[in-house]
Write a structure and sequence with these properties.
Radius of gyration of chain A: 16 Å
CATH class of chain A: Alpha Beta
Order of helices and strands of chain A: EHEHE
Organism (chains A, B): Zavarzinia compransoris
GO cellular component, one term (chains A, B): cytoplasm
Largest sheet of chain A: 3 strands, antiparallel
CATH superfamily of chain A: Phosphoribosylformylglycinamidine synthase subunit PurS
Number of strands of chain A: 3
Catalytic activity (chains A, B): N(2)-formyl-N(1)-(5-phospho-beta-D-ribosyl)glycinamide + L-glutamine + ATP + H2O = 2-formamido-N(1)-(5-O-phospho-beta-D-ribosyl)acetamidine + L-glutamate + ADP + phosphate + H(+)
Oligomer: homodimer
Distance between the termini of chain A: 7 Å
Protein name (chains A, B): Phosphoribosylformylglycinamidine synthase subunit PurS
Helix content of chain A: 25-40%
Keywords (chains A, B): ATP-binding, Cytoplasm, Ligase, Nucleotide-binding, Purine biosynthesis
Number of helices of chain A: 2
CATH architecture of chain A: 2-Layer Sandwich
Shape of chain A: elongated
Amino acid sequence: MKARVHVTLKYGVLDPQGKAIAGALGSLGFPGVNDVRQGKYLELDLAETDAETAREQVKAMCEKLLANTVIENYSIELV
Amino acid sequence: MKARVHVTLKYGVLDPQGKAIAGALGSLGFPGVNDVRQGKYLELDLAETDAETAREQVKAMCEKLLANTVIENYSIELV
C-alpha cells in the first residue's frame, strides 16, 4: 500500500523559504505572486495491506519523525 | 487564485533523503517501510484570476525556478 503525506507549516508560522521563493520569482519577472508556502511531500511504500492499520502506522510515523507537530500540520492520503 | 505544486524526483533518480527517512523509520521501530520518496509541496497565492493564464505562469515558474527539470517532475493543481 502507498501513502502520500503532506507536511505543511501551521497557519501563522513564518515561512522564510516561502518568502525567499516569492522574492526570487518576483526578481525573475513573475509579478502577481502574493505568497508562497513550502512544505514536504512524501510517498511511502508500505508492506501493510490493511488501510486502517496503514493509516495508524503513518500517523505514528508523522508524530514521531516526519512532522514537527509544534509548528507543522500533516495530512495522510492512502492510495 | 491558489496553485498547488508537487515537485518530485523522476523515477530512477536516487533519493538519499528518502533512503535516510526510511532507515530512520526502521530504527524507530516501524517495520514494513519498503521505500520513501521525498519531494517539495508548494502553495502559491497568485493575483491572476484566469485559470489558463495562471497555469501558464506557474508552469513557467516551475521550469525556471521551482523544479530542476533534469531530475525532477512537477505537477500543478489550481484551486
